[in-house]
Design goal:
The complex is a heterodimer of chains A (about 600) and B (about 300).
Chain A lengths: L1 E8 L3 H12 L4 E5 L15 E2 L8 H11 L6 H20 L14 E2 L9 E2 L5 H16 L2 E4 L1 E8 L10 E8 L5 E12 L20 H9 L3 E2 L4 E7 L10 H4 L3 E3 L6 H4 L12 H13 L9 E4 L5 H19 L8 E10 L2 E3 L11 E3 L4 E2 L12 H16 L18 E2 L30 H21 L6 H15 L3 E2 L1 H18 L13 H25 L8 E2 L7 H4 L1 E8 L2 E8 L17
Parallel strand pairs in A: 1-2, 1-9, 2-6, 9-16, 15-17, 19-20
Antiparallel strand pairs in A: 3-5, 4-5, 7-8, 8-9, 10-15, 10-21, 11-14, 12-13, 13-14, 18-22, 21-22
Helix pairs in contact in A: 1-4, 1-10, 2-3, 3-10, 5-14, 12-13, 12-14, 13-14
Chain B lengths: L14 H12 L5 H15 L12 E8 L11 E8 L6 H12 L18 E4 L2 E4 L12 E4 L6 E3 L2 E2 L2 H8 L22 H8 L9 H5 L1 H5 L5 H12 L6 H11 L13 H5 L6 H17 L3
The chains are: A alpha/beta (about 600), B alpha+beta (about 300).
């Protein structure tokens, strides 16, 4: 059994920042990641980091923009923490050597981004995430922090108390991808989940193949609520054939969207008369799809993003990476032609419920980054707010897990007296587990175990059994087929535009995939680098998360942020200023709600009509 | 082990697969599971070993290196052939995924971002190091031959052991070491645009290992730091924010037996770099700087 003070699961932006912070607090910290840290998906982030650094800007403006962008579904304490901590964290990266783009005076450059009232997005060309990831990995190397790379964490070691709020996390179970060994990792102080996004729930996504929401699914099954999962961000500019992201920086620098008739549709059809192309992502995504649906799309599929007028010099200076992406993945020369773009899944606003210190409902279990929901993004994330989230909340989770006192959190976790139970949601099928109630969540069945070593050992045994069963079965269904069915249904039914019929269809499809998953088997008998096995376990996670997204979306009969419902095209503040919460109770999701916190440090944010 | 295989062997269709397929045809597929199984077996029959004719339309042949140290019948390295339907915009990675998901789920390779930034799918494709995700099938002549990166131990199929590569990267103190501590209080270390421009290309490295694999010198000298690690050292040595003393220290690290002087300016690293980093130029520049530094003592 491996043993450390703090275990960080995931080696992307949030994980690396958490590890560095825990190390600075004096903890013995280790990173466990199924990739190698430099392969993490943070490296694909392009745009930048929002931070109020300059005269004329301040954290309160950043907080206001973020709250407005969230369509008033963010929690004020989280949003204000993000805006307050981001400048220091951003400059910290600079001090670690991150190669930011520079102004004439040698300071870091900032540029405009969608939904921001000030040009506060700091950036490093159009490859900000790559530089952020590598800069932080360099600091991990410098500090000698132990990294277990290509170890797949497949379950948490959580005690067995009936009430999830009484449970404790003592470590994780991980599978050594290179050798096939299943081993326990004990955490004396805490486990931090930093496992990233869930993009693989969809078949057209900017996300890496590795983004299967493992951390969120594991925490969910161990009893931690998932929050606001229905809010999935679709990025308006992805390449049609692959889903590769074309940064919002293109529009930030002045890129223009045209339909097939050459009309600048954001203005022409009144989607955003003030901000035009720089309206927030949900607004632009809907505008593009409306153009396509009304017959003004190119090849009935996409629209054009044009940056030619910016000139070669400016493009090469600030957006060079975009030229490479357009050329390599779509065969288009961005200097000569407009680029084809359409919306694609990009970011999961919801996730593991945490407070602003990264703590979850389960003692000793933390989460940060895209897998977590603090919540700063509410129902719609502004461009340039994901990277500050990683460093701000990664650092806080790391410090707190290592024992630092960050003060009492204002955001509550779990059920409080104010909660509201959803009853009578009309679902076409009973959601949740099929057959065995919950074969692989540790916090289920058996006698209550509290001794940490024993908890980890028990978890390891269960995981070994699960893996053996998957491997020994010699016929059945393979993960790739199930994953494809799931992704197709989610893309068809739980996309930018949503209606009741589609959402119900998706639930039926998810149920069918869940049933078929009982028959899943691993074809590859090898213990060496068995990606067949890893993808099979990941697919189970995708099923649980797809269901959480769809259930939340079906229940929320209003239009807010990224969540649009055909029959409910207005925001219903009287009824819906609340977070969707899902708890996994013995294999069946339970839906409940908790109120949004709009009361900030100095003022209360009043919901207003969101226009750009 | 070497990635060169003396003889290519066409694989016989495993008997068990044929039997399964027959059974599936006889029975009336009822459940979701049975239906999918029947479809899968039908597809599998079309796969591999000279049965491409069953797929309609334009297909190409994908020859993939196979090896597994612990599975009977795979311990002896071989090539498998897959018939892949040609699609517009298809990359080598897409073809590998197609082969794995439709024909043989045991086919093993690393991949993640699909957009040339995670650096995990550097492969030896038609005799050259390239990223699978960045290589269009339409740019290649058939059959498309995919092998693991040469000069690295093969773990399984297309997966190579990257430990040595990481060790070399770590050996050059790959982290920023500024002369003085920052004043804190939101103070940047100011950097001129020109200096950022100077190091820009060197910061693009995605640690894919293509350059190391292509380097004849690295192949013969296991201790040679290699183009990627030297480029990483360049990135810091040329960053003026580190200061002169640190630059001297970095040049000393480069000016060693297995450092910059091993480079024989063959340009193979530069030729294969998927991020167009002028690696050879960077190594040459460090050689010049190292010479200049030594001359100071005269």
């Amino acid at each position: 059994m491996h043993e450390h003070d703090v275990l960080v699961i995931g080696g992307g932006g949030a994980g690396l920042r958490a590890a560095i912070a825990a190390h600075e607090e004096g903890a013995d910290v280790a990173i466990v990641t199924k990739l190698h840290p430099v392969r993490s998906h943070t490296g694909a982030a392009e745009g930048g980091i929002n931070a109020a650094l300059r005269e004329g800007d301040d954290w309160e403006l950043h907080a206001y923009d973020t709250m407005k962008g969230s369509d008033y579904l963010g929690d004020a304490p989280a949003i204000e923490t993000l805006a307050q901590d981001s400048p220091e964290e951003t400059i910290q990266l600079e001090n670690w050597g991150m190669p930011f783009s520079r102004e004439d005076d040698g300071r870091v450059s900032q540029r405009p981004f969608g939904g921001l009232s000030f040009a506060r997005t700091t950036y490093a060309g159009a490859e900000t995430g790559h530089h952020m990831l590598h800069t932080m990995y360099e600091q991990v190397v410098k500090r000698g922090i132990q990294v277990y790379d290509e170890w797949y964490v497949s379950n948490l070691a959580v005690t067995d108390h009936d009430d999830p709020a009484d449970r404790e996390c003592h470590g994780v179970v991980a599978y050594d991808i290179k050798t096939g060994a299943v081993e326990g990792f004990k955490a004396r102080n805490g486990v931090i989940l930093a496992t990233g996004g869930t993009g693989q729930v969809y078949d057209h996504t900017t996300n890496a193949v590795a983004n299967t929401g493992d951390g969120a699914a594991m925490a969910y099954r161990a009893g931690v609520p998932l929050e606001d999962m229905e809010f999935v961000q679709f990025h308006p500019t992805t390449l049609p054939s692959t889903g590769v992201l074309i940064s919002e920086g293109v529009r930030g620098e002045g890129g223009i969207l045209y339909n097939a008739e050459g009309e600048r549709f954001m203005f022409e059809y009144g989607y955003a008369n003030n901000a035009g192309e720089l309206a927030s992502r949900d607004v632009v995504s809907r505008a593009e799809l409306t153009e396509v649906n009304e017959g003004r799309g190119v090849n009935d599929e996409y629209v054009y993003l044009d940056m030619r007028h910016l000139g070669e010099e400016r493009i090469t200076d600030r957006l060079e990476n975009i030229l490479h992406l357009a050329r390599d993945f779509e065969g288009v020369d961005g200097l000569e032609e407009p680029m084809p773009v359409k919306p694609g899944q990009h970011y999961e606003m919801g996730g593991i419920e945490t407070d602003e210190n990264g703590e979850t409902l389960i003692d000793g279990l933390y989460a940060a980054g895209e897998c977590a929901c603090v919540s700063v993004h509410g129902s719609n994330r502004l461009g340039g707010n994901a990277l500050p989230e990683l460093i701000v909340f990664g650092a806080r989770a790391g410090r707190h897990a290592a024992g630092a006192d960050l003060g009492e959190a204002e955001i509550t976790k779990g059920k409080t007296p104010e909660i509201e139970q959803e009853d009578g949601l009309d679902t076409p099928v009973e959601p949740g587990a099929v057959g065995a109630s919950d074969e692989d969540a540790v916090a289920d069945g058996g006698a209550a175990v509290v001794e940490p070593d024993e908890t980890v050992r028990t978890a390891v045994e269960r995981e070994r059994t699960r893996i053996e069963e998957l491997m020994e079965k010699d016929d059945g269904i393979q993960h790739a087929e199930l994953r494809e069915d799931l992704q197709k249904s989610m893309t068809a039914n739980v996309n930018v535009f949503r209606n009741e019929e589609g959402l119900k269809q998706a639930l039926e499809d998810i149920r069918e995939v869940r049933e078929a998953y009982q028959d899943v088997y691993v074809n590859d008998p090898s213990r060496t680098f068995n990606t067949d096995l890893i993808h099979t376990i990941e697919t189970r996670n995708l099923i649980d998360l797809a269901e959480a997204i769809t259930l939340g979306a079906l229940a929320r009969d209003e239009f807010r942020g990224a969540h649009w419902r055909q029959a409910h095209q207005e925001r219903k503040d009287d009824e819906w200023l609340k977070h969707t919460m899902l708890s996994w109770n013995d294999g069946s999701p339970e839906l409940w709600y908790k109120p949004v916190i709009l009361e900030g440090e100095a003022k209360t944010y009043e919901p207003k009509e969101r226009s750009y | 082990m070497s990635t060169q295989v003396p003889e290519e062997q066409d694989q016989e269709q495993p008997e068990s697969v044929e039997q399964e397929a027959e059974t599936a045809v006889e029975e009336e597929p009822a459940s979701h599971g049975d239906r999918r199984r029947a479809e899968r077996d039908a597809k599998r029959q079309q796969s591999v070993s000279g049965a491409p004719a069953e797929i309609e339309g334009d297909t190409f042949q994908l020859k993939v290196f196979r090896y597994d140290p612990e599975v009977e019948g795979k311990m002896e390295p071989r090539f498998d052939d897959f018939a892949i339907p040609r699609e517009k915009g298809m990359t080598v990675l897409d073809a590998l995924i197609y082969a794995r998901d439709r024909y043989d789920t045991t086919l093993t390779f690393r991949h993640s971002c699909r957009q040339a930034v995670c650096g995990s799918d550097a492969l030896f494709i038609n005799g050259r190091q390239r990223l699978g995700c960045q290589t269009q099938i339409s740019d290649l002549e058939g059959p498309v031959r995919v092998e693991p990166l040469p000069h690295q131990d093969v773990v399984k199929d297309l997966v190579v052991d990257m430990e040595h590569f990481y060790d070399q990267m770590h050996a050059v103190e790959p982290f920023f070491q500024p002369e003085e501590e920052s004043d804190g209080d939101l103070e940047e270390y100011r950097q001129t645009r020109e200096n950022r421009e100077k190091i820009k290309m060197s910061t693009r490295c995605i640690w894919c290992g293509a350059c190391m694999s292509s380097c004849n010198v690295a192949a013969g000298d296991n201790q040679y730091l290699g183009p990627a690690a030297i480029n990483k050292a360049y990135r810091f040595a040329m960053d003026k924010r580190e200061g002169e003393n640190m630059k001297e220290h970095r040049l000393n690290v480069m000016d060693q037996e297995h450092g910059v002087w091993r480079c024989q300016t063959q340009f193979s690293c530069t030729n294969v770099c998927p991020k167009d980093i002028p690696l050879t130029e960077h190594i040459q520049e460090l050689k010049r700087e190292a010479v200049k530094q030594n001359l100071k003592f005269w």
